[in-house]
Amino acid sequence: MKTSVVIPTRNEEQMIEEIVKGCLPFGDEVLVVDGHSTDKTRELAEKYGARVVLDNGQGKGDGLRVALKEAKHDIVVFIDADGSHDPKDIPTMIQPIKEGKSDLVVGSRMRGGSDELHGDIGKFIRIVGSDIITLSINYRFDVRLTDSQNGFRAIRRKTGLDIGMTENIFTIEQEMIMKALKKGYKTSEVPSHEYKRKFGESGIVVWKVAHRYVWCLIKNLF
User: Fold this and answer.
1) The overall pTM is greater than 0.90
2) What is the pLDDT of residues 131-150, one digit of tens each?
3) Regarding the domain delimited by 3-221, which CATH topology (the fold level of the hierarchy) does it fall under?
4) Are 169 and 59 within 8 A, CB to CB?
5) CA distances for 66 relative to 14, 75, 88, 166, angstroms
6) What is the pLDDT of residues 6-17, one digit of tens each?
7) Is the dihedral of CA 14, 85, 195, 176 positive or negative?
8) CA 64, CA 151: separation in Å to the nearest integer?
9) Strand order in the sheet with 153-156
10) Where are the domains of the chain?
11) CA distance linking residue 163 with residue 181, whole number of Å
């Protein structure tokens, strides 16, 4: 089984060289799905060895769906472009899929630690909300996950295409888990540390999108 490592991007020229170079040893292709960057992200990604495609301009969820269609290989790994994930964790993440034990593997910050989940009221709200969503998923589907929101994850390409994801923003991460479990796909997690981003700020403004996380949870639980 070969691996496509996908990096969703939008205006990440400061980090893209480091991320692409870090991922190249761990994938049979590195695919950058770009959200119409206005800086040099695409040019630099191609320069350092990635294949680049554009999403449809509708958000991260749209980018992940484009990636699943464009990826050339059996396993698709999603890793953020902000430096918060370590590409060296990719072999551990894809191993359960290669062994036939899982169809979707999520990197757990609760088990691996995080530099981004604690420290201010916004982060507190995010972690409480994430815990509520994860607990709801656990009791609905009789699993024991610890992190439903981390964007660092691996999935069988055919699983990702089969489950029919529709979310356009970051809610696609919890949607992916719920739809995979609903269709009977095996889901697990591995410890993965989340590092403090080196540049920029998170694209998630909690109070603006909280209702979308709640609605995504409700409609996919039942």
Assistant:
1) yes
2) 999 999 999 999 999 999 99
3) Spore Coat Polysaccharide Biosynthesis Protein SpsA; Chain A (3.90.550)
4) yes
5) 24, 15, 25, 12
6) 999 999 999 999
7) positive
8) 10
9) 51-54, 29-34, 3-9, 75-78, 153-156, 104-108, 187-191
10) 3-221
11) 9
